[in-house]
Amino acid sequence: MIARLLAGAAIALCALPVAAQDFTVSNARLVLGDGSEPIENGHVVVKDGRIAAAGAGAAPEMSGTAVDAQGRWVTPGLFVAMTDLGLWDVDGVDDSNDASPRGTVFSAALDVAPAINPSSEHIAIGRAAGVTRATVTAYPGGSIFAGQGAVIDLGDDADSVQKARAFQFVVLGESGARIAGRSRLAAHAAFRNALREASDLAARQNLSDAADPRMAGSREERPGDALLTRFDAAALIPVVQGRQPLYVSVERAADIRSTLTLRQEFPELELVLVGAAEGWLVADEIAAAGVPVLAQGLTDLPSSFEMLGSTQSNIGRMHAAGVKVGFGGFFNTTDYPRWAPQYAGNLVALNAIPGATGLSWAEAFAAISSIPAEISGMGGEAGILKPGARADLVFWDGDPLEVTSAPTRVFVDGVEQSLETRQTRLRDRYRIPAPGALPKAYDW
Amino acid sequence: MMGSRVALALGMAGLLAACSAAGANEKPASTAAAPETPYPSTYRAYPGAPTALVGATVFDGAGRRIDNGIVLFSNGTIEAVGGPDLAIPAGYARVDGKGKFVTPGVIDIHSHLGDYPTPAVSAHSDGNEATSPTTPEVWAEHSVWPQDPGFTRALANGGVTALQILPGSANLMGGRSVTLKNVPARTVQGMKFPDAPYSLKMACGENPKRVYGNRGRAPSTRMGNFAVNRQTWLDAKTYADGDRKKRDLAKETLAGVLDGDILIQNHCYRADEMALVLDMAKEMGYKVTAFHHAVESYKITDLLREEDVCSAVWADWYGFKMEAYDAIPENAALIANAGACVVIHSDDANGIQRLNQAAARAQADGRRIGIDIPDEQVIGWFTLNAAKAMGIADRTGSLEDGKMADLVLWNGDPLSVYSRPEKVWIDGALMFDALDPKHRPVSDFELGQPGEGDVK
């Protein structure tokens, strides 16, 4: 009770919602996000929260307010894939942390969407850093299936979930093995059994067309040898049928191969590899399979026996082999979503190192914007400035991939965002730490 | 991905951390507390040619910037640092530094490499002797696995030439640190920085009370933390005031602190707790050299300046535990602006590869609120200030005549994301060369493994 009251008394930062504005940006150093080189003297036309035009030279039409970018960088908002944004306030404070369900009977049926807190400080901090959209997932707990992740926008409003149940997340490899019965054997058996149960349930109850099969159908009967709850089995129906992407966390080359061969048994699977630290060793196979990858990028330590081949050249080498690969996996406390540009910039740095394979500047930016957006089912919608896309726009005070740069203006869906966070409030309060005529607590 | 990084984060970042600097007592460790120096360093500088780095932008780490500069070193030491008119003696190998930058070797004051090495398997979990809240008797060097591949990454990507390995922060008194040269070796003695003073790692706040409170023993609260610390110090003073004849490893460490020979590296997040720790130090007669993590230093910059205590900080880690909830990215800039000492630390096997980038980030966050700290000062955040707080600034941390030739030739501005070390010298010996695959160290563990000898 007391804890509740105290929590309720915490400062809430409520910016007044602003309506989407029509505006036309001129004279921008414009990055489209699609992997093309930056454009000098570019324009962006924003109408009704969408991009009406973006490109070189003068705008083909004027819409709303004229904004002279004065040669500064203008980019699409960053799209950061695989985060835990909005699922915790303080990672180490269990009561505030929804990212790691434990002790529940449910697994694949878990859905992050209703738990995401749009007022999360971490969303505000990400937004101020130019992150305008992200995917959110929980961590696996008692099952290899972590449940269903969502696409969110980081706009300062109550409506953050753009697409619920956007993908299912399963962990194979070492972490999946630990969960399933301390062996990859157990993980693979659990995986196949789960998908078979889903197929069986779909066939018997005709749930194939249901948007959310968990909530569809009326009969509860199941075969006597079912291991999954009905709710979990139903949640996997869209996965088996290829209507919902299956994100598979694997690192080792052998585990990647095992994952790619799953489609021989389950032909409809829409696979996305997550992690793939040794992806470069099997890059040709990943490319041939047409499976996209969300990788961490700077992993270069043999942190486990499934990551012996880790190198910062992983993404560059996969990209060179024709794999669709973007950054993903900004979890927990060691890879903040707002670090995505720094990570991308580091891959550009690799170009100067003999033997290393990096990305060009434009490719690196795409790897934190349009590519993760495409992999996340938001192709043409987010992480890119082209007609029809959502007007997520960031103005920067310097090269967006440089560690010394930061956004000066951020728009989500054409709505300009406040860059104020609880951190900026603390910063302003303690700019001079000694109290004046009254204690610091009166300074707000 | 979920497995290892998250486990690492929970097991290490969440539990460990700390570093600091300032007012370090720079005489070598005395032998007052023990009859001899056991486990002595066997490190000797590797051979190096007399070398002239010519035409680079030189940051000397001590606040100087020289454009189109020249750095001369031979016999393992810096001979001269100057402008383009500096005479280059005959017989010196010239390295063209045009368009490149030279800094002192990067120093990480807060690392757990070797004690929490990769692979991060439980058999390698050697950084926290979490069996008693006070273990001043343990020495981090006895856990260091010299084959940790993390050392090589810190060298190749981070330009790290020296680092302090600290016990973790599970305990109030975690044990002695060890300062290493980042040179591959068969033994930890082969890495030990010669005659570096010891430090005692202490930890305030959440970790000790959580670890021991969960076991139903003291400390289980912050007040318990202080009570256990104070009683331990009082008992140590009794020992120190006696004849010290009966060997007692724990008391010898604490007596060394009271004598001023062993520095204090104090993991502490919150401003109010740092202020209490400073009073405890006065009460018991020791000095805190540095607070590590110190995410709330910005709230007490005046106090930290007055007390001459360094803050060893991340650029912008925040929010991962309650005592990190008020972290702000302007912390380092606000500390420096107040005239107090800043060190940028890693506490992380990945972060140690990018201390320069973290410093640049922290500098820029300051600039945006009108605090303009020049590049030549920021370089000191991960070189000279770290050396000062580790008690080795008389020998390394800056490019000054007579100091160890520990230096990095960067292929661009070290405060840019686009730059990497091109060459790294330790005591004048070329230990890494990005242009020569044979100058990439490969640890025993990685020999014969996928990716052996790869760029990392």
What features would you describe in this structure?
The complex is a heterodimer of chains A (444) and B (456). With 444 residues, chain A is of the alpha/beta class. Chain A has two domains: 17-76 and 384-443, Urease, subunit C, domain 1 (Roll), CATH 2.30.40; 78-382, TIM Barrel, CATH 3.20.20. Chain A has 14 helices and 16 strands. In chain A, helix 3 packs across helix 4. The longest helix of chain A has 22 residues, at 184-205. Chain A is globular and about 65 Å long. With 456 residues, chain B is of the alpha/beta class. Helices cover 25% and strands 20% of the residues of chain B. Chain B is built from eleven helices and 17 strands. In chain B, helix 4 packs across helix 5 (249-259). Chain B starts with a helix and ends in a 23-residue tail after the last strand. Chains A and B meet through helix 2, helix 3, helix 11 and helix 14 of A and helix 1, helix 2 and helix 9 of B.
Key terms:
heterodimer, A: alpha/beta, Urease, subunit C, domain 1, TIM Barrel, 8-stranded mixed beta sheet, 8-stranded mixed beta barrel, 14 helices, 16 strands, 25% helix, 21% strand, B: 456 residues, alpha/beta, 6-stranded mixed beta sheet, Metal_Hydrolase (chain A), Metallo-dep_Hydrolase (chain A), Amidohydro_3 (chain A)
How do the helices and strands line up, and which of them pair or pack?
The complex is a heterodimer of chains A (444) and B (456).
Chain A: H1 2-9, E1 23-30, E2 39-47, E3 50-56, E4 65-68, E5 73-76, E6 78-83, H2 121-128, E7 131-136, E8 145-153, E9 161-171, H3 173-181, H4 184-205, H5 230-235, H6 237-240, E10 246-250, H7 253-260, H8 262-265, E11 271-275, H9 283-289, E12 293-295, H10 314-320, E13 325-330, H11 340-349, H12 361-366, H13 370-375, E14 393-396, E15 407-412, E16 415-416, H14 422-429
Parallel strand pairs in A: 1-4, 1-5, 6-7, 6-13, 9-10, 10-11, 11-12, 12-13
Antiparallel strand pairs in A: 1-2, 2-3, 5-14, 7-8, 8-9, 14-15, 15-16
Chain B: H1 2-13, E1 51-59, E2 65-74, E3 77-82, E4 93-96, E5 101-104, E6 106-111, H2 149-158, E7 160-165, E8 173-176, E9 178-181, E10 199-203, H3 206-213, H4 222-241, H5 249-259, E11 263-268, H6 271-284, E12 290-293, H7 301-307, E13 310-313, H8 331-337, E14 342-344, H9 355-367, H10 375-378, H11 384-390, E15 407-410, E16 421-426, E17 429-433
Parallel strand pairs in B: 1-4, 1-5, 6-7, 10-11, 11-12, 12-13, 13-14
Antiparallel strand pairs in B: 1-2, 2-3, 5-15, 7-9, 8-10, 15-16, 16-17
Helix pairs in contact in B: 4-5, 8-9
